[in-house]
Amino acid sequence: MRTLIIALLIFLPVLSHAATKLSKRQLSHNQTEATEIRFSHPGYYGAFDPSVEGDPRNPNWVWMAYSSGEENLPPHDDADSSTIVLRLAKSEDGGRSFVDQMELSPRMQQRIMIPGGIPAIWHYEVPSLVRDDQAPADERWKVFAMRYLKINRRHCNPATQPCDNGRFYSHSWIAYRSAPEPEGPWSPEKKFLSGSVYNESNTLVDTLSPLMSAPLLRHTMSTALQNCAAFTEPAAVSTTHGLYIAFTCATGNADTDRIITLKRDQNGQWYYRGVLFDAEKARSIGLPSMDAADLFAFSGKIYLSLSAHLPGHLYQGCHVFEVTNLSTSQLRMVGETQPAVVSRIPSLGAHLNGGCTYDRQSGAMGMYIFERLPTLQTQPFLKIWATEQSPWGHHLVFPASAQ
């Protein structure tokens, strides 16, 4: 999961910032270059987790939601030295450059005290931006993200404060907001989906959560989701049959973690539609696991992008698969258990790179990918690149030495 990168996300409006001069990374095949997407305010640690969506009002307009790693000011040593904000940027040149528009949620009191006198901070991560064509006009655009509570990992204790590297998944859910257009106004945050470890104190009292409402959906919506401790990595796509969202169902066991699909029909009802990808499919193509889903439509077909998890390297590039039937969570297969790989977006040669995203209105720039440089001393060490490789393009190789 991208939660392995750095503690993650929040939302808020700011002044617009123009993108700075682009840098290029020469590829070793066919004289193709990847383009770094730079922002004048990417955050101290940089930009990552891109999600792009075309705007039907103009064929050159593309919107990008992305995560921005920022330092806490003033520093709060006992909780966390970083905050991740979720930003929204706009391109008016087909995805070649982006201009920052806003952060996507009102700034709230981030630091709170949990029982035991331990300071904690709310984080968000892994946004998915989608234009929901069948939604009411004032809810046409949506952003989904994971929200969770984080403490300094030295306070984790299996008996009293069980947490994953400081992350409290018992205080986590998939959050969403909606707007008539990307410019806003954006609705208040709502709870969309929670897992089996969700703590009811998030609903009943205001000591841990500023949002007292219950989640719209829970893991109990289907018996097939009973072991989903938490949900992360939302990937939404709008079709003529309804809105589909893929999520990583995190169980605490790599063999049972899987990517599942939910559907909202034309009557507004949500249904579980099955397992889109799991460990068995990953092993069938020689990988231990895959994550960081992105769903996108092109020429009447739906595609799924996933990032490979390799031991010690986290994400290493992306694989693209064709979804033959979203309603039954079916991929195009070359055998009973092996999905057909449409294309591979190669590794950038960095310590971590993946989380690819694509939209047809940014087609000339290909798929976007983010990387984390191996040294955290280089600021920013998180970057977003336009690969200039389409999901159906030839295989390109990024030189490992390129920086």
Key phrases:
403 residues; mainly beta
Write down the overall geometry.
globular
Q: Point out poorly predicted stretches.
A: 3-21, 26-31, 73-77, 395-403
Total of helices: 2
CATH architecture: 5 Propeller
CATH topology annotation: Tachylectin-2, Chain A
What is the tally of beta strands?
24
Give average pLDDT, whole number: 82
- In the sheet with the most strands, the strands line up as 7-8-9-10-11-12
CATH class: Mainly Beta
Q: Which range best describes the helical content: under 10%, 10-25%, 25-40%, 40-55%, 55-70% or over 70%?
A: under 10%
Radius of gyration: 20 Å
Structural class: mainly beta
Main beta-sheet strand count, sense and barrel state:
6 strands, mixed
Tell me the β content: over 45%
How many domains? The number is 1
Topology:
Layout: E1 24-26, E2 33-37, E3 46-54, E4 62-76, E5 80-91, E6 99-103, E7 111-114, E8 118-131, E9 141-151, E10 167-179, E11 190-194, H1 201-204, E12 217-218, E13 230-239, E14 242-250, E15 258-264, E16 270-278, H2 279-284, E17 289-298, E18 301-310, E19 314-325, E20 330-331, E21 341-345, E22 352-357, E23 368-372, E24 382-386
Parallel strand pairs: 11-12
Antiparallel strand pairs: 1-2, 2-24, 3-4, 4-5, 5-6, 7-8, 8-9, 9-10, 10-11, 13-14, 14-15, 15-16, 17-18, 18-19, 19-20, 19-21, 22-23, 23-24
